[in-house]
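Suppose you are handed a protein chain with no further information: no name, no annotation, nothing but its sequence. What can you learn? This example shows the usual starting point.
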Amino acid sequence: MNKACIGMAELNLRASAVKAIKRIHARVRDGGDDGRDVFQLQQELKSIETHFGRFVDNHNHLVGEAAPSEMVTHDSLWETVEELYGEACSTLHRLIATSTVDSNASEGARNVPTTTLEGCSVDLKLDPLAIPPFDGDMCKWLAFKDAFETLVHNSAYPEAFKLGKLRQAVNASTVPLIGGIYSGGYQEVWKALKERYDNKKHLAEIHVSRFLNLKVATQESSQALLAVVDTVHESLRALRVMEIPVDQWDALAVPIVVSKLPPVTKRDWCMKCTTTEIPRLDDLLKFLERRAHSLSPEPSAVLVAPRQQRSVKSHVVSAERAQCAHCGATHRIAKCPALSAMNIEQRYEAVKSLRLCYNCLRAGHSSRQCPSGSCRNCGRKHNTILCRERFTNIASPESTSTSPVSNTAPGKVQTTSAA
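A reasonable first move is to predict its three-dimensional structure. Written in structure tokens, the prediction is:
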């Protein structure tokens, strides 16, 4: 089969995947909460993930063989499909989580026996009231206090029942004043807890510090990006509960969050901000959540598979970085003499057949998602040994005297010419 036929096949497969993703996105967007159970929603999520994987594979092959003038069209299609996929995944994850919570709540309501204590209906099983445990960590105090006051303190339960709930929720080993030795009734214990932990100044300092000291996300992975989103939400939500005007912090908060992002995500966000207006933090967090759902959940997953599939060279190179994926010798593939002896088209075919990233020459991701740098010769997203411009310059008539080593690294060409 010639190259034209192969290219047409990849175009058709990519177009088919795009149609499937658009169809599922429309169904999720228009259907919303249409009564589907959690198993149907999970099947829908699995289906769109499969179609997106097909799209990425065929898209990467087409991009690897595309001319520079065709890249604008490919990049535009990628951005459109990535946004549709991210929105659909976010909605499906949300619906699955809601369905699971509702199902558990309904099951719990059917199975919880009740009785009457001092004129009120009381749950004798302490488990159904989902109060987050408190171990003395100030970061957890607001969430604990809000839940405990709503579910227990402001209720008509007897004092003895409230004290039992409080001792069940608070860790006595880290918060001694709630310990087993009698320390007064419920009101006295609750007042003592609030005097120690309900310190607005101290709480504000802790949550502001937590926001300012966000951990830098070094990997382009779903887990790393969602960790940033969750930390920002938790810190600002706590400050908002204390009536601190965090909604006016966009000019300060956005640069802080962006500085903690991995390089490719940071670049994509900066390219998205095309106006001179101050970007909103909510827009940044929504962008990060959509991008997180379009990435693999664990960046190390591709490093586990090679030990189970030794027959695939592209997987072996991920686990054994010193072994060349092309010839099997002990050197980096970028320094492989056999690969360097090929012309530029043969090199592309070799990298494509090994299913390696065109940029870093490693397996497990596409050049679009690659966090490594770009070509040292032209600045585009491919490895320097795959640069058509560099190859043309080396093979020009002025360098025909060095033709035996014309495909090797630039330093070797210069040395041979001088000799």
